[in-house]
Protein 1
Amino acid sequence: MKHFEAFRIDSANGCLWRDGEPIDLPPKQFAILDFLVENPGRVITHDELLDKLWPETFVQPQVLRTYMLELRKVLGDEAGNPRFIQTLPKRGYRFVAAVTEAAETSKESLPPIDARSVPAFQAGAAGAATGFVNRTRELAMLGAEFERIGDGKRRVVFVTGEAGIGKTALVDYFCRGLPAGTVVARGECVPGVGAREEYYPVNEALGHLCSSAASEEVCRILARMAPAWLAHIGRQPEESQLNGQGKVETRMPGDLCAALEEICRAGRLVLVLEDLHWADPATLNLVAALARRRAPANLLVVATFRPRSIAPGHPLRGLKHDLAVRKLCAEVSLEPFARSAVASLIMAELKQSALPAGLSDFVHQHSEGNPLFAIAIIEHLIAQQILVNSGENGASSFEIRSPLETLDSEVPGKLAEMVELEIERLGPEVKELLEAGSLLNVAFPAWAVAAAVDCDPAEVEERCDALARDLHFVERAGEDELPGGACSPFYVFAHEVYREVLYQRQTASRRAQRHVRIAQRLAELFKGREADVAREMAMHYEAAGEMRRAAEALRAAASHAARRNAQFEAAELSDRAARIEARV
């Protein structure tokens, strides 16, 4: 680990501490800080940083400004009077603080766990046996909440994180280790279904309850206290079970709450509701009632959802805020895996204790620590025969047979299908904007999207802001300064996977048309200074198949570089122009 002032940074595990306290940093911000700290006192150019973060991908340098702003907030640094990161206008950045090697300590090897103890259920089979790794802290937090309900204190725990981050894996592992006698009921929200069928995940959970080892007692209680709920899942109660009530057709939330409380008297009940961001309002109201009722109940509600998938004003936001204010809930937030955790995940997946050199770094970089993405990349490497098992007699001994850099840019099939399903749920105008944004790679400015779709820039800016509010995979990242002092906001895809799928789903002719429009708009914006953006114009013309215009732009960029005495850059651009002209 390296130490600067009150901070310590652990490159291997992707961790940053201030005075021994852990600090959460998103993967990109951590990667920038880590690279700067590894090179103290040296000027790191914009291009060098961009190549480090997005290798072989063209990304506008403006995106770095936003990441630096966030880093300075975390470090308590000031651009005008830097203690850590010095900005060198039009050149790059320099880390100016003294950096020393810091001895690792057991105290800082993991963030502190806010739990009284790690429950007995966690001490079972090793995580590697199930592919479950790096969630000791989060599992202990769930365990602590489970221990609390033993005193009749009902609790709600929200398990949150982006798609593929491992919410379901964590809950599965937690439920498998619960003590004997614990009743678990699970229901899953389905996109689109909630609008047509109330209580969909609750009905599924009740179905599981009525098929569990305690089914006879559960059905008896439901028939007596909530017969309409039992009938709704296809288990019509017998006349003898109705306790003289007769046929009841209306499902009353209070009846189900009381029935679940009765079920809890004999032991603990864990009710799991997954993907609550797709839940119908009636289900959310039921969760609120279960949490706020005063009667003792050994009940733990575990609800998973993606925070970025709930728009402002969504009732789930109000529910979570209300329960948090009343101290009736807890949140277990899952962050992306650090490098070491990705390595452990790969070892579990490949069933071997050592990995080929460079494999875990490659997967961590391209998955950005998302476990689902990491596994999809490994499967893709195996399918492409870049990663090959040379073990004998059933043993695993995977080796890299081709350079990882030869891997094509195609998104692994399983991952592409998952992202495609998310995109298909969006409206046509939203998809049009996102597809246009994908032409600019990871970061895209509103003015370029407006040019690509041939719309009014102000209107597109409003629509892009709405996208950033409503979609979990797009966020507003800053403003792009244009000639004449005007500004245009720019946005960032949460992951390269989303951008790649959006790019590939467009027809070649549509992509070409949009690339040309962006290049032409660049020329208009920088009229008289076209050489400043000639390289970017060339990228768009080349992507559109306009090779002559791409070569002309590169020649202009080379001349501009030569006038700045950047002879190496000028030669590189001229050579690239010659190669493109040879393809005409």
Protein 2
Amino acid sequence: MKQFASFGLDTTNECLWREGEQIALAPKPFAVLRYLVENRGRLITHDELLDALWPEVYVQPQVLRTYMLELRKLLGDDPAEPRFIQTVPKRGYCFVAAVSEAPDEAAGAATDGAPAIRAALVDRVNEMAFLKSQAEAAKRGQRRLVFVKGEAGIGKTALLDVFAGAAAREFAATVARGQCVQGVGRSEDYYPVKEALSQLCASARGEEARRTLSAVAPQWLPEQCRAPGWSATQQNERAPGDLCGALEQLAAAQPVVLVFDDVQWADEATLNLISALARRRAAARLLVVAAYRPRDLDTAHPLKELKQDLLMRRLGAELTLEPLERMAMGQLLRRELGQEELPPGLEEFIHRRSEGNPLFAIAILEHLIAEGALARRGGDAAGPWEQRARFQDGEAGVPAELAQLIGLEIERLAPADQRLLEAASLIDVAFPAWAVAAALEMDPAEAEEACDALARRVYFLHRCGQDELPDGDSSAFYVFAHSLYREVLYERQSAARRARRHVRIAERLGSLFAGREGAVAREMAQHYEAAGAWQRACEALCAAARNALERGSADEAAELLDRARRLAANLSGEGRAAAELAIDGELAAREGL
């Protein structure tokens, strides 16, 4: 049995399990999933997959896409943010979830799988306790609605995986889940609801669920559950009230838990159904859990208004998942590496670099291993992990998996928003609107308005305050939620485009501080150096050195001039000679003090 998240791949009996329930899976999709799982972490090209599963037979590559769509639907996997199957454009696929071995006999037990799932969760004790308290209230007949919010990769799905198992085990609840998928939800009414109902009808209470739906809400009966003689007259428009009644009937004697993930992508009809389930007055052992990303909700998003109204009326509760603290990050790393003693500095480095995001942390850890910065002692496959190279932010790079994930998020934005973010990445994790305006040759007020609008729409950008400029104007400044986003945005620009924008920012700095450029000369030099404008970088460093001397900091001046001399080596001929002459003049002035 190969275990990943809440799933078990039973290679002996060739079937898939989730939380003790068998999931119907045809032989070929099973074979595709098995091949990916058994080659976890490796790119599987289209040709390799076709050759492995259809040897000596020509098969259209399009068949793989069909099977991937089916597998993603069964696994609740979003191709834009894959937890299991990652698409590598024009090349193939990669299974990215952690895989472990589990005894095959555990597959069919109703409560088995939970220990492996529990082990995958770190530092969510209070959150689990809260969800269990809501399940306990539902078991007493008090219907409950809980919104779970958190950014991408923070662990919402992992928490819900664990809670689903606990609800079934500890509260004898029937759990059904629906995954909202970007692009699909808005075009197909009730997409996650239909998925949850299919699970409900395939559960241990499946016969009861099918009978109840047939009697109370026949329009909602899943297609695969309809009898051959199912009447066409029953194909009326789905009435939310009928489904509410059917669910309440099912939840009369035994708790029912409905879990909807990524409801920021849910269709309006699904949101209306969640609203109806929360507002109805009849007693029901019913708990609805809806997880979402807050930064994907703009001011006009229907979920935002629905949530605020239900919370204000005390018809729901909200649970926020925060980034992991450093101690919890250490627990995560010990679990992933399988050892109690971590290499010195690893916990602090990954916590700082990931900013407490579990998904980012694991990707960074795997990247360090792939790059050889972490390795087994003595090359022994069972030996402890130890540090082989220093951990340093500037040299770490962005793991390929995360770079692709972040890149997909960025590609979904409008071209104007992408340009805005690229320009912002040229400054630092924190950046002012005036610098974005300078890089893109925009009006500063328009740039600030655009940054404000973007910060309201994407979760990885925040407005942090207002700065007063030397000319009396003010400019808002912003910060990237994760430095990794900034790095990906920086690298996706061509060198020539970056150079032009860096020069514009440096020139704007100089004009803002006209008459006292020395105060910002060091920062100007950084932009000129990034642009490869060596002559201007040397001039700026000399100005910064003069400013340091005026402040009485001779050591700082020496460091700046030494850097200027190194940059001058990139010049040739008269340009290099002139730069070195200027540097020597500044050194002489320093020594004369």
Protein 3
Amino acid sequence: MSKKKEHSTKLGQFFATAICGNDILSSALYVSGIAAVFAGVYAPLVLLAVAVVLFFYRTVYREVVEALPINGGAYNALLNGTSKTIAATAGVMTILSYVATSVISAKTAVEYLFKFLEQLLRNTNNSILADQLPTIVIPIVILVLLIFAIIVISGVKDSAKVATVIFVFHIFTLISFIVFGFIFIINSDGSIYQLNLIKTFASHDNGGIIAQHGGLLQTLFLAFSACLLGVSGFESSANFVEEQKKEVFKKTLRNMLIGVAIFNPIIAFVVLNLLSPSAIANTKDFILAEAALKVGGILLLAWIAINAFTVLCGAVLTSYVGVSGLIKRMSLDNCLPTFLAKENRNGSHPRIIIGFFLLCLSILLLTGGDLFSLAGVYTISFLGVMSLFAAGNIVLRKTRKDLKRPYHAPLVFVIIALLATLGGIIGNSIIEVRYDFYFLGYFIPAIALVYGIIYKKDVIRFLMKYTKSFKGIHKQLQYAYLRTINNKFYVFIHHANRLHKTLDYINRNENSWNVTLIHCRDNEGQREKIQSLIPTLKESGTFPEFKLDFEYLDEEFGPDVVYRYAKKRRINANKIFIGSIHDTHLFDYADLGGVRIIS
């Protein structure tokens, strides 16, 4: 495929924004309800504050992802910028956020659809059937999750054109809702807003929001923490950055920020003028449907419900596709069991999808589909990923000083972003201890599995010490140990003074000690220096377990060399390690096909 044709098939700003916009702007269907419940009339201001945090994180993501433009979001960026352990932690949190996103989206989609069906049944004097709808919400949510699991296993993925149609319809729906809402507000007497005002400032005994949460500052802090759910999906653009044309990624970040900053606060303001405090509390899971019914009757309700169901089901599909790619990459990087990466004839990964469906099913049944509990799990995991991303940005400045960067984020912006999301994690823990229980109940076993695989050789060596009396088991462990340490990696190395740092990185982050060092043409005599260091390392006892081979390629280092070498060895690019990409290089990291930067 020619570069011109390859470039033309990549996504432009509009299509790329549509894909990630469906994800992040789907939160407009429920975050205003969360904001109103926690903050009352301060809900719009809280959602504006959330948009400000997104502004700071836009710079964080832009610096890291433009420097390391490879699919996989936080996991791959941190893998190339920090250590494998930190990257794997972010990967586990991202998986949990995908689980919660999928369940929240499916549950909310069904709630919106059922709100419409309930009203339709009541209008046709079928109140008995209408009353039965809430009892089958969870089974229908399970059915939705199962259907999309089957779709992805069958090899049907979301397309940019379909995502764009959904996105345009969603934006048009949100704008129409706001317009109808303001028309209603202009013609109303403002009494409903007064009720929300009273509810916000009432005494503790009268159920006042501020009084119940311990004062204005604490109320705003807790509301801000809960409403960080409204930035869900901001990471989605980083997950398919390789499919975007040059310069598009930063525009998708800007467009998502604009959408969140405009729609979420305005929708919250409209809701506060349309629904009473009790109505907000009772309909928080499908709050726009209730507001639409009041403003435009069953026709506007049907419009909102169809749009909500469509865009939220799209988010479920995106979660399946996104988590499939992430877990596959983590499996190939030996962070998760490699059998998960097995593909079927359609190119999908049924083992990953089935496992993900079971995780979604378990958390749905455990929480009973409660939006606040699910939002807490999601928010903690997602904010953990964002915090690690910001921390990774700071670490990247020290460990990858020479890495070629098209953009440099102001350090103060990175620090503010990090403090904001760490504060959000603390706030969500204060709101409900259950959130920590649900989150830790999934996080601890998952991270234990991942760390066990990352440090597989150490785990096997430990077990071998205590199984000598069991010859059969001990022999199997020995075989597994030899197979683990003989897994081969290939390192393109240019300077002899990087050799120790390179081997130290592999020793700390990988299970294998079988390394081939590759040196391309140079005019500095580094070839002889590197070759002479190999026996010196062996004689001195430095990295004694390593089996080192050396290859010389009489050509300049670049993308063509990497591609040809990977093809010759029949290996994936993630098995190839390099140093850094500097400003003096005529190519970017994205041109190298997914190799790992380790020094």
Protein 4
Amino acid sequence: MSDEARLEALRERVEALPRSPGVYLLEDAQGKVVYVGKAADLRARVRSYLRPEGDGRAAAPFLARRVAGVAFIATGNEKEALLLENTLIKRHRPRYNVRLRDDKAHLCIRVDTAHAWPRLHMVRRFRRDGAVYFGPFTDAKAVRRTIRILGAVYPLRLCSDKVLASRTRPCLYYQLKRCGAPCVGLVQPEAYREQVDGMLALLRGRTGPLLDAMERAMGEAAGARDYERAAAYRDRIEAVRRTTQAQRVAGADLADRDAIGLARRGEVVAAAVLHLREGRLLSLRTHHFPTILPDGAILARLLESIYRDGRFVPPELLLPTEPEDAEALAATLAQRRGGPVRLLAPGRGPARGLVDLAEQNAAEAIAAAEGDAEQREALLGKLQERLSLACLPRRIECYDVSTIQGASTVGSRVVFLEGLPHKEGYRRFRVRTVAGQDDFASLREVLQRRFAREEPVPDLVVVDGGAAQLAAVRAAVPEGVALVGLAKARALGGGARSPERVFVPDAASPIALLGDAPETYLLARLRDEAHRFAIAYHRKLRSKRALHSELDAIDGLGPRRRTALLRRFGSARGVRAASRAELEAVPLPAPVVEAILAWAKAAL
């Protein structure tokens, strides 16, 4: 595919992205993730890579030349996007991300509630140690500021267990009213536990009373024109809100679970499956299918389909509603997993938040698919108008042949359905009846063999070439099937080039295509894909021919013995130069050794 066609396809994909926070994954032509980024507006952010001037970063134009696809996961806020970006970079190790590659994680708050005198402890790892964890938090500065603010309301100890056990008198924090001095028994265990419970409630998001009190203090300070104190309260309020902002893409329970969401638009349903492993969102998969079944029936069939063929089944599945035959389905999944599987339809709490996030991504996926479909429909309409076709070209087939000096001539067919590659329809042909290099006859044979098969009739057949190729294959294409030839642009001298041209049977002159028109990019993508597919097949055959052709003439030499000879002597020339003793040492039977020696002698 040419750069122009690749960028046009990428622009179409980008225009269907949502205007919401999330993480985008830029992929190369092989589908490998080469860059992971976060965005407050996914469409605007990814679109900036495709502007000629980029987005101001030196890497943007560099990436734009290498990216062939883009995937995304929508999130509820930018905090979720930042956390998810961190996780996905560590999972995919993209080549062009220069940060977050280490194993360092975001800050978490740990509270060991089993301890007699719990304290807040900042860590970077969740562990299954019975403690209560909060986070992860994306803003370490805000976390530390929040802990200082909360310490003024709930004066829990700040010292380590070792210091707690060895102190004999209160420290400075007691004098500053930041600690109740449990080290020397100046606070009762019951009172201390009440402070711990209050702190836990605040960290779980019940910040209303604290924020109300700080907002009143901020208003009083502003009313007294003490603006510095008002600004300090403002910063504290913002720190508490940022620290306690809800997020759903990482949790402290380290559980493996999948969350599934559905979105429906008419008779088309999209399902989004969030895969969470050890409490972290690792990937998203979406599925589209037409159906009028109710949600419960859809979920039952979806779960049966997703978790088959040995695929991993997590112990917990979070669903938007209860599926049909839930008990029997859970038993089937448990048998596949080798352990119990819970099917839950949460109504509230963090689990419901994950289902909501899955439903959000399902809705974005169906909206993106609809946007893509509308754009492709308009594109096919433009192509129909430009080529004066009788119907919309929903199925387009493009053919090409490849040969070098008449050896191993092959043909290729690529199929585009609704403007998109349909890989299941791709075919390769080894030309059988044409001797020597005759591209016209080879192309005619390929088309004759194609239309001898029982396959869907295309709306448009495209061959790589001009009037001569078109005349050679016209008789092989049935009446009623539109046929055109696509000729590449030619150099005209002085740096000028002719436009891409489409040859139509019985037309006096070809149709000149505009270089920047969407229909030109579509036809160019077809031709480039057919050419790539043919060349790849031809290279494969050439490599086999180069490896085996000289040794194929030896009687009694099968694939195993041929491989053994090539490993021992490196090439056919090395085999030809080998002595009888060296051949016998491979080892080879005496008749095969004699055949090799006779072949080598005949080649002299």
